[in-house]
Write a structure and sequence with these properties.
The chain has helices at 20-40, 54-66, and strands at 45-47, 103-105. By secondary structure, the protein is mainly α. It folds into two domains: 1-41, no CATH class; 42-118, no CATH class. It starts with 19 loop residues before the first helix and ends in a 13-residue tail after the last strand.
Length: 118
């Protein structure tokens, strides 16, 4: 612990290369997100980085959309794709569910930089 490394046995909970201090912060954020979900019900905005396998969450969104009734037209999940719209407001200001898909926060960029102006 003095080396700020996640003990090997702890690392089996979820994969991370973070230092121990950041790993504990991340674990607390995850626990807080899921605890609120259990206590208050479905959130308006999902902390995507809290999921162990976020691709499963994304697939569930596609399945929910494809199973909707569009009259006689049913859209195959294989033909669907995501479209991302950036919403420039704090998570706490989101007080309704997304019409299609979901509002998410906690995306992590690797090898990239976010430019708020563009």
């Amino acid at each position: 612990m003095l080396a700020n490394k996640v003990p090997e046995k702890w690392g089996t909970f979820y994969f991370s290369l973070k230092a121990l201090s950041r790993w504990l912060e991340d674990l607390n954020e995850r626990m807080d997100f899921f605890s609120k979900w259990c206590a208050k019900g479905l959130p308006y905005c999902f902390l995507i980085s809290a999921f162990m396998y976020p691709n499963g969450f994304n697939t569930a969104l596609l399945q929910r959309f494809s199973r909707r009734s569009f009259g006689a037209n049913i859209v195959s999940i294989d033909r669907l794709d995501f479209d991302f719209i950036i919403i420039p407001r704090p998570v706490n200001d989101i007080t309704e569910y997304a019409k299609d898909g979901a509002y998410v926060t906690g995306l992590i960029l690797e090898g990239a930089k976010w430019n708020k102006e563009k």
